[in-house]
Amino acid sequence: MMFSKKCYNLLKKVPRGKVVSYKQIAEQVNIKAYRAVGNAMNKNKYKDVPCHRVVESDGSIGGFVRGVDEKIRLLRKEEIEVVDGKIDLKKYGYFFK
DNA sequence: CTAATGACCATTA
DNA sequence: ATAATGGCCATTA
Question: Measuring from the CA of residue A40 to each C1', which nucleotide is nearest?
Answer without folding.
Answer: C10
